[in-house]
Amino acid sequence: MKTVKKGIVGILVFTMLFIGYTSAFTYADGPSSWAEDWISEAIEHQLTTEKVLSNYQQPITREEFATLAVNLYHALGGEAPQQQEEDNPFLDTEDPIVLQAYHLGIINGQSATHFAPEAPITRQELSVMLVRTKKALNPDFEAMASRPMFFLDRGEIAPWALEEIHYLFDEGIIDGMEALRIHPRSLATREQGIAFVMRSFKVFDTILRQAEALRVGQGGDAISLDPHQTMDTLSSRVMKQIYETLVIQNEEMEIEAGLAESWRYIDDLTIEFKLKEGVQFHNGEELTARDVEFTLLRALDSPFIGHIVGMIDPDGITVMDDYTIRVATVEPNKALLAHLAHTGTSILNEKAVVEAGDVYGDKPVGTGAFKFDLWNRGDSIELVRFNDYHGEAARMERIVFKAVHYAPMRLDELEKGQLHIAYDILPRDIQRFKDHEEMMLQRSPGLTSAYVGFNVLQEPYNDVRVRQAINYAVDMDRIVAIVYEGTGTPAKGPLSNVVWGANEDLETYDYDVERALALMEEAGYVDGFETTIWVNDNQQRMDMAVLLQQQLKEINIDVDIIVKEWGTYLDGTASGEHDMFVLGWVTATGDPDYGLYSLFHSTTFGAMGNRTFYANDRVDELLDKSRKEADRDIRREYYLEIQEIITEEAPWIFAWINEHLTGIRNDVGGFRQHPTGHHLLSGVHLE
Fold first, then answer.
1. CA distance 142 to 374
2. Cα 521–618–458 angle (5° rounding)?
3. Which sign, positive or negative, has the C-alpha torsion 665, 669, 675, 677?
């Protein structure tokens, strides 16, 4: 006879001793390799019995699985039902665990008065019992599935089990025995029964824990919760709740106090920050200026956010005392405060980072109103209220960020009440919110500028008349109506109107094919030319390229659309291999320096942002001067002129300014969208 692997035996012996078992036993055979970890975990959570921990490939009986289901019920916090001795409808069993399962609604008889305890259980019967166990814990529970089930033997599933199997498949508890087959009428083995119960424990425990939480759906999982390891929106939305910055930007993008209660300029290069005293990190450490110094020096070494803090002089960071720090830039730079409000500059605790090492992104420690609790990779991230928070306490005890990749599914879950907030609603789904009794849509302008860039180093795009002609030939109102279905607005210039200093008086390129043809003739391209436009596999960008292809035929330009993988796309546009390309830029700090310098300064060609390779001496001069200028009104005048020059010289087709579309349930209060898309949730509550 085989024996189970040593690790399982060790756990089993310890567990049985702990719960009072004194008998020694051996196993007729060991479990399959795929089942070993499930069995180990089931033993740890006391979800097994002595009997089923043997002969693992033997079919599990109705009585044995009923016992496992009752163990599952209790492990999830369920209380034993009230029952009388005479409350036994069965003639063939008096097992108290079986009777408990009956009174919980987990089982019933195969016929009116028989339970058939020794009969083996099928996979579909097992599925029904698992879902009934969940319903015993939550009587209001309904087994709703949100994605299709693709089993080839679906027709073999009994009607009374179809809904339950579909739900368990949707939750990842049950899958096929082989590709696309579930074998619903096949007998389940003991090891399969243990595995199903353990999978159910993990899923149901998560569902029950999250039941009273604020549930937020977004288009995927975070990459990392280390602000120096990523800048993606999905991660930043979570980090916004965990961390805080020295200063913050409110919904109007105005600078306000954050962890720094005050600040002052010492000279043109240096800002002195006074930190709020008594601020605790989630690990109990007190925030000091040393943590700020550590954070900024670490940020300067990051390839992900170096462009945000790159103006800081690493030798110019000076700790004056525990609550005072000075930060100097290499050159005068009045955009520094806005950059220090970016999530990438969230203040870290040095001790926590050092102790966690390479896995710090999985164990974040901040000073925010919520602290990290659990990360179910690919599914959800859970945060809990930080009770020692230095500011106003969060309204909710727990927040769950759910990764729901498919946008229509996010909306379905919002409508069913499985989510309270759903980010990034598709434009085509706006009508679903009209006059809806249980959910509403919040719309607000964002900071993203979508554009079509020209490689101005290559013919014919080195001729400004060609670039202007293309702008006149494009009906951007029509493109926005079709591609973005009327959300957002056609761009007037390179900046969103939400960015301070955006020039709203620019002379725009109205749709004028005749003027476009005249400019093409003047430039020597009366017969047009052939060209390419690069896109990545983003559906809206591909749709925009198709419409551009159609419209540019009106001025005799034949466009070949080339779809590139994202990494290849970024590398190719950085090295200038393209003719035209479709991309976007988020002015994440709300300061025009962030939205103009990287994209149009002659020192930032390629990967740093300027993929059009545009250069203009006057633009360079004004961008440099605006960084150094202390007077905000003078800075604004510089930026207004910069935008006029850029719009006139047209290194872009100025395409679209985004709009944030967030669906919320009507019982959600206190939610306010932020232009960056990183929405603070500490004031959100359920009414």
1. 25
2. 40
3. negative
CA dist 187 and 166 (Å) reads 18
* Residue 443, beta-bridge partner list: 661
What is the Cα 534 distance to its own chain's centre? 26
SS3 261: strand
Distance separating alpha carbons of residues 142 and 416, to the nearest angstrom: 11
Given a contact cutoff of 8 angstroms between Cβ atoms, the answer to whether 380 and 401 are in contact is yes
**Rounded-to-integer distance, Cα 215 and Cα 421, Å:** 7
Q: Is 97 helix (H, G, I), strand (E, B) or coil?
A: helix
- CA nearest 49: which of 173, 199, 197? 197
Owner of token pair 């545009």 = 614
pTM, to two decimals = 0.74
For 108, the 3-state DSSP assignment is coil
Quick check: helix, strand or coil at residue 544? helix
Q: What angle do CA 10, 15, 18 make, to 5 degrees?
A: 130
Q: Which residues contact 357 (CB under 8 A, 6 or more apart)?
A: none
> Any alpha helices (H) in 487-538, and if so which ranges?
513-522
Q: Count Cα atoms within 13 angstroms, Cβ side, for 472.
A: 19
* Gap between the Cα atoms of 625 and 583, Å rounded: 28
Alpha helices in 417-538 (DSSP H): 464-473, 476-483, 513-522
Q: Which of 9, 71, 75 is nearest to 36 (CA)?
A: 9
Q: How far is CA 241 from the centre of its chain?
A: 13
Amino acid at 214: L
Distance CA 491, CA 544 (A): 14
> For residue 172, how many other CB atoms are within 10 A of its CB?
12
Cα angle, residue 56 at apex, residues 52 and 58 outer, rounded to 5° = 90
User: DSSP state, 323?
Assistant: T
Question: Is 528 exposed, middle or buried, given 0-12, 13-18 or 19+ CB atoms closer than 10 A?
Answer: middle
For the chain, 687 residues long, the average pLDDT of each consecutive 10-residue run is 40 38 47 92 93 92 95 92 74 91 86 87 95 91 82 92 92 82 92 94 86 91 93 92 97 94 95 98 98 97 86 96 97 92 96 96 97 92 97 96 91 94 93 94 94 97 98 96 92 94 93 97 97 91 96 97 91 95 92 94 92 98 93 95 98 96 96 94 95
List, in sequence order, the alpha helices (H) in 496-631: 513-522, 539-552, 566-574, 592-600, 617-628
Phi then psi dihedrals of residue 383, to 5 deg: -120, 150
CA gyration radius for the chain?
31
Give me the residue label for tokens 């930032």: 604
The runs of H, that is alpha helices, within 378-505 are 407-416, 464-473, 476-483
The token duo for 111 is 């016929």
CA dist 10 to 7, 409, 456, 506, 581, Å?
5, 44, 69, 75, 61
Between CA 131 and CA 69 the distance in angstroms is 10
